[in-house]
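<derive_structure_tokens>
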Amino acid sequence: MAQRLEGKTAIVTGAAGGIGATSAKRLAQDGATVVLADIDLAGAQAAADAIDGASAMQVDLTDEAAVQSLCETVVSKFGGIDILHNNAAIQSDGQRQRDLDVMNLDVAAWDMAMAVNVRGAMLMAKYVVPQMIASGGGSIINSASGFGVQGESTLTAYGTSKAALIQLNRMIATQYGKQNVRSNCMVIGFVLTPMAVESTPDVVKDILLSHHLTPRLGQPEDIANLVAFLASDESSFITGAAIPIDGGVTAHQPSYADFQKMFAEMGSGKL
């Protein structure tokens, strides 16, 4: 039985670990030839080594010439580009420590977030879309965040960049839909990536879980499952969407967790 992505070539950015590496693995399992692209070439190569038939390539998403070169190299080597997962984002410890509330925000952190998270995704689309059109179409999957649809006390640049990515997604879907290029956005909640597992205290995980409608927190595989679906023809009638994948966090009133706690203490669900 043919796999649903057999014969397709995919690029996953930010693929050296976490959601990117897991999504690349899932796309390959569904039959795609996958290129793991990251500024961290050693990390991307290590991830690619664990995936049959995968390749690793270095790219600096802030450098347009580097993005163009990546796309041209993939087309030359594999004959085309059918799937693009714009997953890369700048979220290092140093970046987070400078990406604060507006009064205390380091403008350099703002510029870096915009350069990688939005401009980088735009540049990838700029050089991938023509290849998709030439081959009859393709699917772009963008990794946004709940920070892009809800306010927060910190991470101003990150959240604003993810809101911009959601709009960029709509623009791409609108501009190239009639040429069979689809673009969708995943609005991702908290996910237990290796970095999140290591850096997030259990008490914080418990607070986050209290706001989920699911009995567990998200795993990278949950996101990878959606990536594979959006990459496939099974989602051919879905484009321009911003799909929450957050365990229901953005589906309820802000008071949900407090009321659940109160009802548990009361032993009743009635006021």
Q: What stands out?
A: The chain has one domain: 9-201+217-251. Residues 14 and 88 are 4 Å apart (CA to CA). The chain has a mean pLDDT of 96. The two ends are 55 Å apart (CA to CA).
